[in-house]
Amino acid sequence: MERLTMPPGGAAAVDDYVEYRRIVGEDDGGKLFTPEEYEEYKRRVLPMRLQNRLFVSWRSPTGMDCKLVGPETLCFCTHRYKQHKTDFEAVPQQRPISLPCRVTGCPCRAYLYVPLNGTQPIRCRCKHFADQHSATPGFMCSACSKCSGFRSCFTCACGQPAYAHDTVVETKQERLAQGKPVGRDVPYAAMGGLTGFSSLAEGYMRLDDSGIVGTSSQVSSLRRPEEDDMAFFERRYQERMQTICADNWPTVSSKVPRLQRKRRTAAIIPSNQGRRLTG
């Protein structure tokens, strides 16, 4: 096993480089800025980035953010979100906001998220993968002539097909107006919709307001700090009984008179008739 050793101050230098890469992203063109260029870049870009950050998500018809896009999230053009234009001096007025790819020769005009099926791209109705289609509008297949444009029947974990979802680019104010989390203002490049560790989970598993489906049962299943074992199990039992009664209320209510008659009959029968003889 190889062992990596660093000179004194080496760990701090690594931390500085990681910080540099998170702030600058792809803007240096692969050549490190000089200290003067780095300070000038931060002076010029950071205020603009903090004020005009764009949040990107893949949203279902129900309004749930099934995927929150981050710097490394792939676009339909197979390039990552951080390789697209994400910083604006002024937020564009037109909607939807287009984030074109900055890779030389890429025809992608706007970032478009496409999900993965495990580790491989999803398939179109023409049976070919997403990366076998053109990134230009229309998204025609390059492997066959029958395809009229990429459209996948892949089903998201939320239960909706992929073609029913939209890649949404919105401002902080637009997101706050919908009651969705925006996190803290950060100086890092191409953060997209990431606001915390929970942003890495799928929408239906998230406990923040970007996942708007039934998470109350997940929260209820967690033990509260002040609960002991008996209190926890009693609360869960009562919640389960309330759910059963709510689902079967007509059936339960119709059986109540019959149960009462059985109890009255049992009270009349002498107790010795209910005993079992043993040898």
From TrEMBL:
It comes from Cnephaeus nilssonii. The lineage of its organism: Eukaryota, Metazoa, Chordata, Craniata, Vertebrata. This is Protein FAM221A. It comes from the Eukaryota. Belongs to the FAM221 family.
